[in-house]
Write a structure and sequence with these properties.
A six-stranded mixed sheet has the order 3-4-5-2-1-6. The chain is α+β, with helices and mostly antiparallel strands and 124 residues long.
Length: 124
């Protein structure tokens, strides 16, 4: 797999995403470090949840704003904005998942990547 950015750049983008989540009071913020997993699709997954679709959308917008302000990067792909149950922001080496609480529990993203190193972050 060819990487477009250095590992330091993907770590920085993940930190910007986490800050964007904290700005809108996202819950149970985690970063999965996938760099040492052979079949990983990215360097990092950043995951959080919120109680309402409105807050999920606000968090996603905040993440986009923070990353764009610092790097001038738009997500390569984004999905889920219409319903606000699970919004995915794909920055190639960093993929951000913003769930509504019940959807996060249902999909269990953390369990799918059990070999990943997990770092927990405080909500603001």
């Amino acid at each position: 797999m060819v990487k477009n950015k250095t590992s330091n750049e993907s770590a920085y983008i993940s930190e910007l995403a986490i800050y964007g989540i904290q700005e809108k009071k996202g819950n149970e913020i985690i970063r999965l470090d996938l760099r040492n997993i052979f079949s990983s699709v990215a360097d990092y997954f950043v995951i959080c949840h919120a109680e309402s679709a409105t807050q999920v959308k606000a968090i996603a917008n905040s993440i986009e704003d923070e990353i764009f302000k610092a790097t001038k990067q738009e997500p390569w792909r984004k999905e889920g904005l219409e319903f606000g149950e699970w919004i995915l922001l794909d920055y190639i080496d960093v993929v951000v998942h913003v769930f509504r609480t019940d959807k996060r529990e249902f999909y269990g993203m953390e369990e799918l990547w059990g070999d990943a190193e997990i770092k927990y972050f405080q909500s603001a």
